[in-house]
């Protein structure tokens, strides 16, 4: 699989987790792609941490408004019915449990639902931005990540080794190989890529992992 | 009534060694003309409180590149590699604060509160050195207020009483910062007469604003 194919599988599968009417916050990068795969008949409201609800797609070239950007600073649009507010209210929405689902990437995620996504000591310290608030405050936390690092090392670990974004908050982990529910020290494989066996997935997963009795194949993008 | 000053006159109020809050999310809603003038003036040893440090050479990034800042309190510095380099080689001391916590600490500073209890950061290095409280079975960190000598903020419209209206996502940290500094300087795109803004539209009441300055100078 190419990196792009992996990203599409992950984004498309996460989009299936959203329900009509959900307030959703998508992180920068892969999570942003989820917006392109919302199933027909489902309408969700995207929240942008920098201060609005009703986040829409990128504007046509030439239509950019410097006052309308997403959390990555890129030009976006605000859909009809959107609402703007300041950072304190934005994070009251986030921390106060008013966001139904947040989707984030990961450097590491573990079998206890711990997430490390914001720094590699001595190498990369960009800051946590809004991630710590989102992971603590959202009702459901979904991590979307490639199953392994670029060097093929597991990212789904027994215990995170990097500094945490939040402790024990992750509910679901979606990779190109499967969908995992976090269950007190174990990752339960709910769905798997049809071309891989459970044992093949286990080899690249450091976290204790068990196949759900009702294990299904992931429906892949056509 | 706030004074209406030119950008250079307004920026002259900032002294080396001051603690300065600057509104904006990257360059969106940042008072970029005030920042550019401040970077040009050559102040130093500022403590800067802002969400991020913009990008290299733009927004708050201009102050980082100009060597004006020795201490920074921010939630994210990843969009400006210059900030990371200065942090690693020790020229800049950086306190990273979760974005929602940063907003609440500034709000506390302006709202007369002694702090706020937040679940954000519990069980992470953001909890180091902080008091933890358990309330109804949930753990919270005590986060203390932030205030500044001067806040530089950006709004869309002001009236001559300093009442402010922001536009779209350019609001971000500006309203909380307007409440949390001894002197508040607002860069605005337009200044209208008293009475032209509907009281229900006003997002920051003018009593918080000491100085108004226009992004682009026009004849007064």
Q: What is the average of the pLDDT values of chain B? A: 96
* Number of H- or I-type helical stretches of chain B: 6
Report the count of strand segments of chain A: 13
Count of the separate structural domains of chain B: 1
Distance between the termini of chain B: 16 Å
Structural class of chain A: alpha/beta
Mean pLDDT level of chain A: 97
Q: Which fold name corresponds to the CATH topology of chain A?
A: Glutaconate Coenzyme A-transferase
The appropriate CATH architecture of chain B is 3-Layer(aba) Sandwich
What is the CATH class name of chain B?
Answer: Alpha Beta
Helix and strand succession of chain B? EHEHEHEHEHEEEEEHEE
Q: Helices and strands of chain A, in N-to-C order? A: HEHEEEHEEEHEEEEEHE
Folded structure, characterized:
The complex is a heterodimer of chains A (222) and B (220). Chain A is α/β, with parallel strands linked by helices and 222 residues long. Chain A has a single domain, classed as 3-Layer(aba) Sandwich (Glutaconate Coenzyme A-transferase). Chain A has helices at 3-15, 30-33, 87-95, 131-137, 198-203, and strands spanning 23-26, 45-48, 52-56, 77-84, 101-104, 108-110, 115-116, 140-144, 156-157, 172-174, 178-182, 187-192, 209-217. In chain A, the strands form 2 sheets. Chain A has a 10-stranded mixed beta sheet with strand order 4-3-2-1-5-8-10-11-12-13. The radius of gyration of chain A is 17 Å and the shape is globular. Chain A starts with a helix and ends in a 5-residue tail after the last strand. The model of chain A has no long low-confidence stretch (mean pLDDT 97). Chain B has one domain (3-113, 146-214): Glutaconate Coenzyme A-transferase, CATH 3.40.1080.10. In chain B, 21% of the residues lie in helices and 29% in strands. Chain B has 6 helices and 12 strands. In chain B, strand 7 and strand 8 form a beta hairpin. The longest helix of chain B has 13 residues, at 99-111. Chain B starts with a strand and ends in a 6-residue tail after the last strand. The chains are: A alpha/beta (222), B alpha/beta (220). At the A-B interface, helix 3 and helix 4 of A face helix 5 and helix 6 of B.
């Amino acid at each position: 699989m190419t990196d792009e194919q992996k990203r599409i599988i992950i984004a498309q599968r996460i989009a299936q987790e959203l329900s009509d009417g959900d307030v959703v916050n998508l992180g920068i990068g892969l999570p942003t792609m989820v917006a392109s795969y919302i199933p027909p008949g489902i309408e969700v409201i995207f929240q942008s941490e920098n201060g609005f609800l009703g986040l829409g797609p990128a504007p046509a070239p030439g239509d950019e408004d410097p006052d309308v950007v997403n959390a990555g600073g890129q030009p976006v649009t605000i859909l009809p019915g959107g609402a703007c507010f300041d950072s304190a209210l934005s994070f009251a929405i986030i921390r106060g449990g008013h966001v139904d689902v947040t989707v984030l990437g990961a450097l590491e995620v573990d079998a206890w639902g711990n997430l490390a996504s914001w720094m590699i000591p001595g190498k990369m310290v960009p800051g946590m931005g809004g991630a710590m608030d989102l992971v603590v405050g959202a009702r459901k936390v979904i991590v979307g990540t490639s199953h392994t690092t670029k060097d093929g090392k597991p990212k789904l670990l027994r215990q995170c080794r990097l500094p945490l974004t939040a402790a024990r908050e992750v509910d679901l982990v979606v990779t190109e190989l499967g969908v995992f529910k976090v269950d007190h020290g174990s990752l339960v494989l709910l769905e798997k890529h049809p071309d891989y066996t459970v044992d093949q997935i286990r080899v690249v997963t450091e976290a204790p992992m068990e196949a759900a009795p009702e294990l299904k194949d992931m429906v892949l993008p056509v | 009534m706030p004074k209406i000053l030119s950008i250079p006159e307004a920026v002259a109020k900032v002294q080396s060694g001051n603690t300065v809050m600057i509104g904006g999310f990257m360059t969106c809603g940042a008072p970029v003309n005030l920042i550019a003038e401040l970077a040009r003036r050559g102040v130093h040893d500022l403590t800067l409180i802002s969400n991020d440090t913009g990008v290299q050479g733009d927004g708050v990034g201009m102050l980082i590149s100009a060597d004006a800042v020795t201490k920074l309190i921010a939630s994210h510095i990843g969009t400006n590699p210059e900030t990371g380099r200065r942090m690693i080689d020790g020229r800049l001391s950086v306190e990273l604060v979760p974005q929602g916590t940063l907003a609440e600490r500034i709000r506390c500073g302006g709202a007369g509160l002694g702090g706020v209890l937040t679940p954000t950061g519990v069980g992470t290095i953001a909890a180091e050195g902080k008091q933890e409280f358990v309330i109804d079975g949930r753990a919270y960190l005590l986060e203390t207020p932030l205030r500044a000598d001067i806040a530089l903020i950006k709004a869309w419209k002001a009236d001559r009483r300093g009442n402010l209206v922001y536009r779209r996502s350019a609001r971000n940290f500006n309203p909380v910062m307007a409440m949390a500094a001894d002197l508040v300087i607002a860069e605005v795109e337009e200044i209208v007469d008293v009475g032209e803004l509907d009281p229900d539209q006003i997002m920051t009441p003018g009593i918080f604003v000491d100085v108004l300055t226009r992004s682009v100078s026009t004849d007064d």
